[in-house]
Design goal:
Length: 230
């Protein structure tokens, strides 16, 4: 991601599926960062003996052994949440990161077998649009982002072979795709269709532009690579 090395980076470790080797490579690839553990995201961190700067949650899904392990560590900032609340631990972590000046937030463990959590976490990408902060959900097979102003994707930096565009709003108007296998020109992409799924970048640079609406942009690959270029 262009300029990412200059941004104030935050990583949120949530309780979904995490491929340890991939996630460790992502974290190790950024020298200056703040790591926030959201509740059972602590399990991954304990397995790999990674100490976050911040832990947040109501701690209803983390094991007592892991909770006690971190409670013995020094210099961790704790945010204990009321278990009777309207937002998820991941949402609370995102809002905390934004309040601390985050410019790019990467959520690891935001995907997995619980589709309600996956869809809920995709919904949270909109918090970044409202705040002007870049947020991405990342796992070994997918990078998921949301945009209301389009984006440029460079082939040499792409996360995976496929790029899928899912309209978040009822329609995305005047959509243009250049540098893709399946280009579009001044197209109105409406919901309830799969037209935007599994496109591919064919030029050195691909561009997504549109005038109105919100798109979910998913870069994906079938084979999980163990590295990720930050």
């Amino acid at each position: 991601m262009m300029g990412a090395e200059c941004m104030k980076r935050f990583f949120i470790i949530s309780g979904g599926k995490i491929e340890d080797t991939f996630a460790k490579a992502v974290l190790n690839g950024v020298a200056e960062k703040t790591v926030i553990a959201a509740d059972s995201g602590m399990e991954f961190l304990r397995r790999n003996e990674i100490i976050p700067q911040i832990i947040i949650g109501d701690f209803d899904s983390v094991s007592s052994g892991t909770l006690e392990w971190f409670q013995k560590k020094d210099d961790i900032i704790w945010h204990k949440l009321n278990p009777v609340k309207d937002d998820t631990d991941t949402e609370s972590a995102i809002r905390l990161a934004i309040s601390m000046g985050a410019e790019l937030i990467t959520v690891l463990g935001g995907t997995g077998s619980r589709l309600d959590h996956v869809l809920g976490n995709i919904e949270l990408l909109g918090i970044g649009l409202e705040a002007g902060v870049k947020i991405e959900l990342l796992d070994a097979n997918n990078r998921i982002r949301m945009t209301d102003c389009g984006m440029i994707l460079k082939k040499e930096e792409q996360f995976g072979k496929y790029v899928s565009l899912i309209p978040y709003t009822a329609k995305v108007e005047h959509l243009c795709l250049t540098g893709f296998k399946y280009p579009l020109d001044d197209y109105c992409l409406k919901g309830f269709c799969s037209l935007g799924v599994s496109n591919e970048i064919t030029e050195k640079q691909a561009e997504i532009t549109f005038e109105k609406g919100i798109l979910i942009v998913i870069e994906s690959r079938d084979d999980a690579a163990m590295t990720y270029e930050i």
